[in-house]
């Protein structure tokens, strides 16, 4: 793939994750090695990566995720309830809603769960510039997802489990000063039809020099 093809076809994969095909740990490590080339604030490189492959551990994390997702799916902000006044977009949102529910029921069966984390040196996150804080791990997490795509793996960016972050921290034995940024289910995917997704025209969201 060209860089443009990679960047425009790296989709959120939920229903098409292959739950039966093992993913070699070396392949995950290869993608993470690419991810470590991403920038971080002041080059601190305070990221940490938890890769969960043990079936029991995956099932436990998956159960927490399912609990969090149940509350999300019944909320007013759930994907299927957005843009209800736009028939064409509502159809897409309902498909997203259904795929979120599908993954929630099977999260614990995904062969690899990758959890990017930040080690901050304190149990409580500092007040103030949260963008600067998370900007030191999120680019690397996205680089992991792009690398995984280039190696034939599908991923999904999820954060719903953070409602119960402490429970997942207990399952994984995380120190108090390690904070989770996301949960990225990772597996081989089925099918080959990934393509650019419908998006708003650039001119509708672009502001040059001033908002208006």
From TrEMBL:
<keyword id="KW-0560">Oxidoreductase</keyword>
<dbReference type="InterPro" id="IPR029479">
    <property type="entry name" value="Nitroreductase"/>
</dbReference>
<feature type="domain" description="Nitroreductase">
    <location>
        <begin position="9"/>
        <end position="182"/>
    </location>
</feature>
<dbReference type="GO" id="GO:0016491">
    <property type="term" value="F:oxidoreductase activity"/>
</dbReference>
<dbReference type="InterPro" id="IPR000415">
    <property type="entry name" value="Nitroreductase-like"/>
</dbReference>
<comment type="similarity">
    <text>Belongs to the nitroreductase family.</text>
</comment>
<dbReference type="Pfam" id="PF00881">
    <property type="entry name" value="Nitroreductase"/>
</dbReference>
<protein>
    <submittedName>
        <fullName>Nitroreductase</fullName>
    </submittedName>
</protein>
């Amino acid at each position: 793939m060209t860089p443009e093809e990679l960047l425009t076809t790296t989709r959120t994969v939920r229903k098409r994750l292959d739950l039966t095909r093992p993913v070699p740990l070396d392949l995950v490590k290869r993608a993470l090695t690419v991810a470590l080339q991403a920038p971080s604030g002041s080059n601190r490189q305070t990221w940490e990566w938890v890769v969960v492959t043990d079936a029991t551990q995956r099932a436990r994390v998956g159960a927490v995720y399912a609990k969090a997702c149940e509350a999300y799916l019944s909320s007013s902000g759930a994907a299927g309830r957005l843009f209800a006044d736009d028939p064409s977009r509502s159809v897409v949102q309902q498909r997203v809603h259904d795929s979120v529910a599908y993954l929630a029921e099977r999260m614990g069966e995904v062969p690899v769960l990758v959890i990017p984390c930040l080690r901050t040196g304190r149990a409580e996150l500092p007040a103030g510039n949260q963008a600067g804080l998370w900007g030191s791990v999120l680019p690397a997490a996205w680089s992991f997802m792009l690398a995984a795509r280039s190696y034939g793996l599908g991923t999904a960016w999820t954060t719903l489990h953070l409602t119960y972050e402490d429970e997942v921290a207990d399952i994984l034995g995380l120190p108090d000063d390690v904070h989770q940024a996301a949960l990225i289910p990772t597996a081989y995917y089925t099918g080959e039809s990934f393509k650019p997704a419908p998006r708003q025209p650039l001119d509708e969201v672009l502001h040059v020099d001033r908002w208006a």
